[in-house]
Amino acid sequence: MERRVKEVADSVVISNLIYMAQEASSEEDRRMYLNYAMELMKKTKEGKRAMKYRNIIFDLDGTLIDTETAVLKTWQYTLKQNRRYFELDELRPALGLTIPNTLRKLGIVADPGFGGRWMENYGKYAGEAAFFDGVEETLATLKAGGYSLGIVTSRCREEYEAFFSSFRLESRFGCIVLADETKRHKPDPEPLLKYAQKAGVHPASCIYVGDMPTDVECANRAGMASGLAIWNRSKILCRQADFIFRTPEDLIGL
Q1: Is the pLDDT of residue 2 over 50?
Q2: The dihedral of CA 103, 232, 58, 74: what is its sign?
Q3: Which tens digits make up the pLDDT trace of 81-119?
Q4: Are 187 and 154 a contacting pair, CB within 8 Å?
Q5: Contact between residue 191 and residue 209 where contact means Cβ atoms under 8 Å apart
Q6: Cα separation, 251 vs 254, whole angstroms
């Protein structure tokens, strides 16, 4: 009982520290609060609980591969063709979502050909995408250590084959779940549960690492550990995340 009370108390403190980091008036204060939170998270999560995650699943855009600029420019350009004008920052809600979900979030009713035009336009900017620094080395280290690696993404197969084939992801990941393999999408847990079924693993043995609150919610609802990647400089934080990773190398410590 005493241990459970301490876990709850630590969770409240961590949540408050992350909230303070989100609301900090300076970058120095933000880093200070975030460092405190991460140190406490490390102490409370280490041991047997941390050792059981043998299956590490990643989001794709904004987590493994830096596609932010390409995605935002594509949305801006495609919406401009529809006479809808947005600044790039106004389109950040599009990150991590499928095209239909983004249109709903933006309150836009588009014609049936919108998705095709979006993918065609993305081809103009796809060359700007690249692995984040440290990702390839970390993946190689984890794979050599016997960890099972996978991907769950909101990208459909057509997008995946058109824009990500050059990254040779199949050679690095044993299981990949794309958007058109499920009826529901993040933050609904169905994509991660589909992964567990497809890979033949138990959700409790998995950690899902993504860069958005929707990734964290998806993992928590699927019964998996959730890891928030903040190495993409987005400054997005989420108090519900089990782990926060400042660099890809932090995963090796876990």
Answers
A1: no
A2: positive
A3: 988 999 988 888 777 778 888 898 888 888 889 988 998
A4: no
A5: no
A6: 5
